[in-house]
Amino acid sequence: MTVPILSLDHVDFAYRADRPVLTDVSLAIAPGESVGLVGESGAGKSSLLQLALGLRAPTRGAVHFEGAPLPARRVALRAFRRAVQPIYQDPFSSLDPRMKVGDAIAEPLRSLGIEGDRRARVAGLLADVGLPADAAERYPDAFSGGQRQRIAIARALAPSPRLLLADEPVSALDTSVRMQVIDLLRSLARERGIGMLLVSHDLTIVSALCARIAVLEGGRIVEVGETAEVLSRPQHPYTARLLASVPRLPL
Ligand SMILES: Nc1ncnc2c1ncn2[C@@H]1O[C@H](COP(=O)(O)OP(=O)(O)OP(=O)(O)O)[C@@H](O)[C@H]1O
Ligand SMILES: [Mg+2]
């Protein structure tokens, strides 16, 4: 069996000792695999992503990157920071309004000490996400929500990640551009073999992007399986209820 890029192994997590947020969560993402994470508001989805990003530590269990526990040695941590990149929900607050788009995209290259021709790299990344090269010289406020999310995706792609952790990446966007951003994420995953852990309320989006789905209820994974299988034949009553109740964002 291949070593997962990232795995959570029997992870517990809480912000306050008396309030468990995640309980005995185990989830592994194989190289190139896209996994959807669904569950009601407050189920712990964003908290799980924070652990997966190494921004918070589990209170029990461990997060493994390529088989080694986090936090790892410095060198390995740098490899982790390159390999695992976040994409957030709101492209308005995730981009610094005072930073030119080209500098924002190059920022991870700089902070991770990745050498090379950064201008050329930025131009290539802008092209990859369907934006013109001159976008580099402009500020985020010159762009629409969908374009900003493309900029955020370009920034996430800058260090050539192996896994994207996306928290509701299209729910803040106009319905008219949602499908375009989803198509972009799908082609990045398929063409480059980038894995994805995608949090979404929207099962249509999870179906479009993820072969596998994990259902989180009150901080526990109650069901994991192939997306088509889980959505057509949910085994857990919570999944069935979620299927009946969640909004399906128009695409
Ligand atoms: N920074 C924090 N400090 C304390 N408690 C928090 C913090 N962030 C989240 N929580 C609590 O942890 C629980 C899980 O929250 P989390 O944001 O992970 O859920 P979620 O599934 O992402 O929800 P949503 O769908 O609304 O984004 C909730 O009870 C929430 O109130
Ligand atoms: Mg959340």
Describe the secondary structure blueprint for this structure.
Blueprint: E1 6-16, E2 19-29, E3 34-38, H1 45-52, E4 60-65, E5 68-69, H2 74-83, E6 84-87, H3 101-111, H4 118-128, H5 145-157, E7 163-167, H6 175-192, E8 195-199, H7 203-209, E9 212-217, E10 220-226, H8 227-232, H9 237-245
Parallel strand pairs: 3-8, 3-9, 6-7, 7-8
Antiparallel strand pairs: 1-2, 1-4, 4-5, 9-10
Bound molecules: adenosine-5'-triphosphate and magnesium ion.
Describe the protein's architecture and organization:
The chain is α/β, with parallel strands linked by helices and 251 residues long. The chain has one domain (6-245): P-loop containing nucleotide triphosphate hydrolases (Rossmann fold). It is 37% helix and 25% strand. The protein has 9 helices and 10 strands. The chain has helices at residues 45-52, 74-83, 101-111, 118-128, 145-157, 175-192, 203-209, 227-232, 237-245, and strands spanning 6-16, 19-29, 34-38, 60-65, 68-69, 84-87, 163-167, 195-199, 212-217, 220-226. The strands form 2 sheets. Strands 6-7-8-3-9-10 form a 6-stranded mixed beta sheet, with helices on both faces. A 4-stranded antiparallel beta sheet has the order 2-1-4-5, with helices on one face. Strand 7, helix 6 (175-192) and strand 8 (195-199) form a beta-alpha-beta unit. Helix 3 packs parallel to helix 5 (145-157), helix 4 (118-128) crosses helix 5 and helix 5 (145-157) runs parallel beside helix 6. It starts with 5 loop residues before the first strand and ends in a 6-residue tail after the last helix. 41% of the residues are buried. Adenosine-5'-triphosphate (ATP) is lined by residues 15, 21, 39, 41-47.
